[in-house]
Design brief:
It contains one helix and eight strands. The chain is mainly beta and 143 residues long.
Length: 143
């Protein structure tokens, strides 16, 4: 199952989201639902870049590989992992529409899921559920 967690502050402002899991529609590497979810996650990241002036940094993490951290303010951070070929330097604010990086080979922790973008939303350093911050969306993408 794929889980999307959306984060919102007390004022109702969306602060980030977390995406994890596997759709289970088909075997890893042939799962069109997971491929679509990875693409939608990348588009979400690009939209955040377009409409905000938030700061980005990155780190190497054993579980999520090359990982980008976006400071969303108010104690919120968006974490994007399993990336490669980053297109910015630590502390930069990427320009609207700029590609942050590309999907890397999965780490040993995500070999079952195959190549995908890891996403997590945090509040004060703890993971939160992004679904609480985004409206419910239909998943009729296979028709």
């Amino acid at each position: 199952m794929t889980t999307v967690t959306i984060y919102q502050n007390k004022n109702g402002t969306y602060k980030g989201f977390e995406l994890s899991g596997h759709a289970g529609y088909a075997k890893s590497g042939a799962d069109i639902v997971c491929a679509a979810i990875s693409m939608l996650t990348t588009n979400t990241i690009n939209s955040i870049e377009t409409f905000t002036d938030d700061f980005f940094s990155y780190e190497e993490n054993e579980e999520t590989g090359c990982t980008v951290i976006q400071d969303l303010g108010d104690g919120y951070a968006a974490v994007y992992g399993q990336l490669k070929e980053l297109n910015f330097a630590k502390g930069d604010t990427p320009e609207a529409g700029q590609v942050l990086g590309y999907v890397s080979e999965p780490t040993k922790y995500y070999t079952t899921e195959g190549s995908n973008v890891y996403f997590q939303l945090k509040k004060d350093g703890k993971a939160v559920d992004p679904k609480e911050y985004l409206p419910q969306m239909a998943m009729d993408t296979l028709d």
